[in-house]
Amino acid sequence: MPITDFLERNARLYPIDVALTEITPQNQPEGQVTWREANLIETAEGEEYSRQITWHKFDEMANRFANLLFTRGVKRGDKVAILLMNCLEWLPVYFGILKTGALAVPMNYRYSAEEIRYCAQLADCSMMVFGPEFITRLEEVRGQLPDIREYFFVGKKDETPAFADHYLSMIYFCAPTPPPVEIRDEDDAAIYFSSGTTGFPKAILHNHAALVASCKTEQAHHGQKRGDVFLCIPPLYHTGAKMHWFGSLISGSRAVLLRGAKPEWILQCASEEKATIVWLLVPWAQDILDAIDRGDVKLSDYRLDAWRLMHIGAQPVPPSLIRRWKKVFPKHEYDTNYGLSESLGPGCVHLGVENIDHVGAIGKAGYGWETRIVDEHGADVTRGEVGELAVRGPGVMLCYYKNPAATEEVKRGEWLLTGDMAREDEEGFIYLVDRKKDVIITGGENLYPVQIEDYLRAHDKIKDVAVIGLPDARLGEIAAAIIEVKEGMTMTEDEVNEFCLGMPRYKRPRKIIFASVPRNPTGKIEKPRLRETYRASRLVEAETTK
Predict the structure, then answer these.
(1) Nearest Cα residue to 318 out of 286, 350, 354, 348
(2) What are the backbone angles phi and psi of residue 188, rounded to the nearest 5°?
(3) Chain centroid to CA 516: how far?
(4) Sign for the pseudo-dihedral over CA of 434, 439, 442, 444
(5) HEC readout, 348-406
(6) Label partner for 475 (CA 20 to 30 A): which of 44, 101, 111, 196?
């Protein structure tokens, strides 16, 4: 069965129940709100920037958009790009594309004009749905995208650029019934892009069977029921956010899309919407705890008794962070999920709420998945040794689209090499060590930055840290720690060096840099950017000291 069947089932069984609510904090500029017109989307009473749709309206909007695409000549196998900020239209657009047999191609909203052009051409997109934030970027490169024959604008009608049609005005006159298309499990469904932390994004191809498997995996891991309310903050273009929402889809439960990630907004939204499940990225969890420590927010101002589960994914989770969280929120269940776009999230490896005593591990093979730790020849390493994590399961990508060489590098039959170095303990729990490409070799010793980062984050003054390798004439590379200090605090190199005395000498950072730590929208540290920034200055420094 295709994933669109779940939406149609919910529309039949729960037609008047709210499926999605969009919340934009009231002190954000109004220009950041999408729009509200006609009667396809309802505005909740008393909330100036709260909008919602029922399951019936959700399915109806998807059907109308699918039928609009048909009037524009879309056919099975075509690719339709989605370039939107999180908004109430995002998921109906996505499902409308799937209902036609075309492929949905979500794009990162941080992409520059050049990256938009590159990804649209790489994926062979012939249509694009976009929001007001992207008009200028598209105008820069539209002349270089001759294959995109249709643009649909999701925004206020009077702001529609001349090269596009207004999405709502068009779908309002299209049939609200599903198009007559048979979708098979093996049909291509979507192209996602790698996060780009290791260079220009690669296009990742998945079929409908993988999407359905993600629904079942997420629901098996977190047991969503009809009464749950999922607070979704991460970007929907990313597999993690959307595939965690799939648990709400399969259970027919409500989700809230929060357009903002300040601690007070998250807590207020969780309180007012009675959220039961909140998925956070590491920086947001840190910000919430820091805001509480500083007294900027007071938990007594919120009603959070409905909140049962906090889970984190998309990047390594410092154990010290979870220990802090459990002290502040002792009643919360905690879980972490490991996945990647190539395995379509939302947890090919899964810790499980019952394994809180194994914080620091990413868990064991997730529902329907298998794992191995292998050496450079593909052979299993001895338990306890470090090797590359490989996974096999229903969400493994078909291929990197139009890139057979890159596909061959990471696929070994049904197994996917993740590029993450890991080890497995005696109980079978898997611990991430680091990205294979981030390993630092200093004087012949392998250093794993994540281990050093976890150690440093335990310091009371450190908000965030990234450890990278910088060139060194004698050792080849040295470990450099880029340290972001908590707001209102100061720190010296001597303090850092003294704190690091508890680590083996060879693991201690040899260079300390106080600066902000850049992360992408899914919370991953942008290490290529850091290496580019600091390696050049390190080379100059090394040259001048000869």
Answers:
(1) 286
(2) -60, 140
(3) 21
(4) positive
(5) CEECCHHHHHHECECEEECCCCEEEEECCCCCECCCCCCEEEEEECCCCCCEECCCHHH
(6) 196
The verdict on residue 537 lying in a domain is yes
**Taking the complete model, does pTM exceed 0.85, yes or no?**
no
What CATH number is attached to the domain comprising 511? 3.30.300.30
Cβ atoms < 10 Å from Cβ of 24 = 23
Tell me which of 243, 270, 303 is where a domain ends: 243
Tokens at 264, concatenated: 């007070």
Q: Count how many domains the chain has.
A: 2
**Residue 335 included in any domain:** no
* DSSP per position, 256-317: EEES---HHHHHHHHHHTT-SEEEE-HHHHHHHHHHHHHTSS-GGGS--TT--EEEEESS--
Cα 459 to Cα 44, 295, 448, 495, distances in angstroms:
44, 19, 19, 10
Nearest partner of 28 among 255, 258, 257, 235, judged by Cα? 258
- The answer to whether the CB of 361 falls within 8 A of the CB of 232 is no
- Give helix 4-13 / helix 239-251 axis angle, nearest 10°: 40
Helix axes 449-457, 319-328, angle to 10 degrees: 30
Cross-strand partners of 388? 374, 421
The one-letter amino acid at 511 = K
DSSP state of 525: B
pLDDT digits (tens, 9 = 90+) for 379-430: 999 999 989 999 999 999 999 999 999 999 999 999 999 988 899 999 999 9
The answer to whether the CB of 254 falls within 8 A of the CB of 230 is yes
Rounded to whole angstroms, how far apart are CA atoms 243 and 339? 10
Q: Which two tokens stand for residue 439?
A: 């390993």
- 336 in any annotated domain: no
Query: In angstroms, how far is CA 15 from the centroid of its own chain?
Result: 29
- For the domain that residue 228 is a member of, what is the CATH number? 3.40.50.12780
For 299-328, how does the pLDDT look when each residue is reduced to its tens digit (9 = 90+)? 999 999 999 999 987 666 778 889 999 999
Establish if 286 belongs to a structural domain.
Answer: no
Residue 475: which domain range? Answer: 439-544
